[in-house]
Amino acid sequence: MRLFTQQWRALLLTAVLVVGAVCVSYGDNPSELVGQWVVINNGNKIELFKDGTGVQNTTSLTWKTEGKRLMLSYENKTFVSDYNLSGYELTRTYDDGDVIVWVRKDKVEEYKKKNTIDFTDSRNGKKYQAIKIGDKTWMAQNLNYQTGNSWCYDNNISNCEKYGRLYDWNTAKTACPVGWHLPSGKEWDNLVTAVGGKSVAGKALKSTSGWANNGNGIDNNGFSALPGGYRNIAGSFLSVGRNGLWWTASEHGSGNAYYRDMGYDEDYVNEDDDGKGYGFSVRCLQD
């Protein structure tokens, strides 16, 4: 009887070890993470396979999890982050506070739609869309509210409909609707950080069409930045199709203010300052 019991115990122990090994293997490569993902922040694409391998753009990688920690290894480096999966969104948070959002490849449009808000400017009845990026809500179009010291590119009203109006800085400070404001340089910096940093933010924020020489972005967030050009102090209109320039609320001395610039020929978001009499675009940020 004891021998029989010992044999069953041995069989039971073997079964437990086998099941445990299966669980460990499954835990290392959980099936819910297997598939194609788009990195919303910067446009990179990644595919994870069940066997613990994967591809990011054209770079091979290996991956595994331990608890709620995800480890990606490629180019002789390992990147470790906490992860949280909610439906088709996968949020990765690094120890330094950086956050990356992945969305299943076939759900990107659904993700943008979920984060899009419709609103109406009560001053003129114009309808806008806004998009939530991180914990902030930005207009998804340039402001098009007619006031003094604002212009349509080339004084052509059709350009206002496409690109919004160009404002001098003093006008831009008060042009946003009630409940919205001209973002500061710091708030623009936070947006740039939220979509992957300066070196990729232009690519992430630019619209998927309309930029010269096919210098379009991926626009996975729905920000849809367009190259509305600018008006210089002499009254000339320049660079439509090639550059988009947006005022910030931050001054640089008494005569200049900071702006952000995206170009058709780069993936960056640049910071610069210029005279307050220039006409640049405005993106409003919800209070």
Structure description:
The termini are far apart. Helix content is 22%, strand content 35%. It folds into two domains: 26-110, Lipocalin (Beta Barrel), CATH 2.40.128; 115-286, no CATH class. Strands 1-2-3-4-5-6-7-8 form an eight-stranded antiparallel beta barrel. It has a three-stranded antiparallel beta sheet with strand order 9-10-11. It has a three-stranded antiparallel beta sheet with strand order 17-18-19, covered by helices on one side. By secondary structure, it is α+β, with helices and mostly antiparallel strands. It has six helices and 20 strands. A hairpin with a 2-residue loop joins strand 6 (77-86) and strand 7 (89-93).
Features:
287 residues, alpha+beta, Lipocalin, 2 domains, 8-stranded antiparallel barrel, 3-stranded antiparallel beta sheet, elongated
